[in-house]
Amino acid sequence: MAVDQLAPAARPPLFYDPRVRAIFFQVLVLGLVVLGAAYLVQNTLSNLARQGIASGFGFLDTTAGFSISMSLIQYSEESSYGRAFLVGLVNTLLVSGIGVFFATLLGFLIGVARLSRNWLVAKMATVYIEILRNIPLLLQLFFWYFAVLRALPSPRDSVALFGSFFLNNRGLSSPSPIFEPGFSSVIVAFVIAILGAVLVARWARKRQEATGDQFPSFWAGTGVIVALPLLAAIFTGFPLSWDYPELRGFNFVGGMVLIPEFVALVVALSTYTAAFIAEIVRAGIMSVSHGQTEAAFALGLRRGPTLRLVIIPQALRVIIPPLTSQYLNLTKNSSLAAAIAYPDIVLVFAGTVLMQTGQAVEIIAITMGCYLVISLLISGFMNWYNQKMALVER
Amino acid sequence: MSEQGQSYETGQHPDLPAPVTTTGIIGWFRQNLFATVPNAVLTVLAALFLLWFIPPIIDWAFIDADWSGDTREACTREGACWVFIKFWFRQLMYGRYPVEELWRINLAYVIAVVAGILLFVPGLRGKPWIGLFLLVGFPIIAFFLFVGGSFGLPEIETPLWGGLFLTLVISAVGIVASLPIGVVLALGRRSSMPVVRALCITFIELWRGVPLITVLFMASVMFPLFLPEGMNFDKLIRALLGVMFFSSAYMAEVVRGGLQALPKGQYEAAQALGLNYWKMMGLVILAQALKMVIPGIVNTFIGLFKDTTLVLIIGLFDFLGMIQLAGTNPDWLGFAIEGYVFAAFGFWIFCFSMSRYSQHLEKKLHTGH
Hints:
The complex is a heterodimer. Chain A is α+β, with helices and mostly antiparallel strands. Helix content of chain A is 66%, strand content 7%. Chain A has two domains: 53-162 and 258-344 and 357-394, MetI-like fold, CATH 1.10.3720; 176-243, no CATH class. In chain A, α5 packs antiparallel against α6 (217-236) and α7 crosses α9. Chain A is globular, with a radius of gyration of 30 Å. Helices cover 68% and strands 1% of the residues of chain B. Chain B is built from 15 helices and two strands. Chain B has a two-stranded antiparallel ribbon with strand order 1-2. Chain B starts with a strand and ends with a helix.
């Protein structure tokens, strides 16, 4: 045969094969990381042994021996470190939850105000946003705590709000509810009413889809939710009374007291985050093009239904993702509590407990783990919501 | 059609001026403040609120304020006592840095400002070199200037550093260090190698998921445990490391945004030209992606600048820390508000101008449709 045998294609050297390179590189990186981690662990262990610090999570059962100025769950000086951790965690969640509520309220209000056709109102909203979001949160927190709440008068000359709330330098005294025996039936009635309202709304929507007839399910639902617990309360003879704070001697007795640290933290967190939420709301509303409004008007919808059925659902799609990340920021920022001694998880656990036990590694790991779990939960929710709300395209 | 006794042919009526109520200042007021009844009510309420809110503040800050004097006794009037700020000014700016060595800080400021201004002169050549100098050369010069101990400069220990100077040092180090780390992390997160990607995602999400305070706590109590016996870091360096990790995770996400925004065609075109990975990234992808995310980088910097105040919790006295320290000085008790207002003003100037700059950049760089 005259035809030369085709030489097999020259294989490139192994080193130039992308797959081999990738594996080699990954093994190298992994090896370096493992080596580095091992070095740090080795150092840590020898340091701990040298300083005589115990390790492990046994300390969580040890008696704490310090008191905490505010706790929603049962806690005393005889409680364990684990209990103190729970108190801190609950306090963090409480302050974040309330902060989120007020920040959302204020943020939506200011965001809408900034879009107002009233020049004065729009400018005031702009000034609020530009001032609040360009000043560090810690500074605002110090301002509210040291310059405003600490400077309030003593309980004797406290500022009375609505007759039964008293603001003074020991905090905010407010009436506290007292639940009497029959109260559980009111709660049961409330739960049943909500379930009923949801069912009515579902039935109404199905009927509207099938026949086109509308049913005032919103008003019906509201009526049921108000009326049923009210009826239950009347039958059981109003099993709820209020304990009003009273000035006795130098301080208030009765009612409940919100400590000034808590008030300062809620005010600072919600006013600061509201400035960011306002911008998000504004961007969301502006992202819905004006053509949508015109189209809705052309279909014969009035202003109210246009907003409710056309503008808001589309704006929410833009608003929700950054809004959740603001909620997340607020939760993380609540750790600034440590600076004004509000007993949150950082102050109680990463502060006092760490100081007493010295077990830095475990304590910092648990604290960071808590925040990490919270943020993973919130971002998980956000992804789920995004997928649900994403535009379904052909 | 007779109007006021005059009649015109159809279509011959001369143009009338717009009604007085829709033009000029009256028209503006009607349209923007009193368009409808609820709107008018809102305007009146807002104006009343401003009248109630603003004059007392002006009285306090300017009219009734004490401006001159050097001691607490000079503050006799009702309003603000700016003497407090005047008395503590040097500490607020430089901390406890020795007076005779302050020129070192000021010299560094001058170098930075001059280089910064040169960067903005339009049409000047060699701007990349100036940028490179600011990112690489300047930090080295500043390090030798601030720390001292060589070139005949006496050493200044970091516990003496403080005030606005420390705030600037921490935020500048945070930003300069986090840029390269953030770019590497972002590339790693988009890498096709699973191990590298997993490591980068873990690192980024770990730091982004926790508050800066816990990072600083960790830096101050856990870093010493990580080091071999006898070796120890300065408190400032530990805080800087914490800030660096934290901000590089945020920076990585900003850069990733830019990488994702680039169309796939750019990658494919670069590969078709035969560029290898690093050349493709450096010459084609990052060159465009980084330009796109400059506003995001500036925003990260603003966030970092505000967050540096947290270092006071681990016992470093930055700008806000110095204000707290001055306010709790037994000779100067009771002037907390003046201190906070001054600090707020200082931070506000920095952050507001940076955010304006980032908005300006966003407009300038918006070269699309």
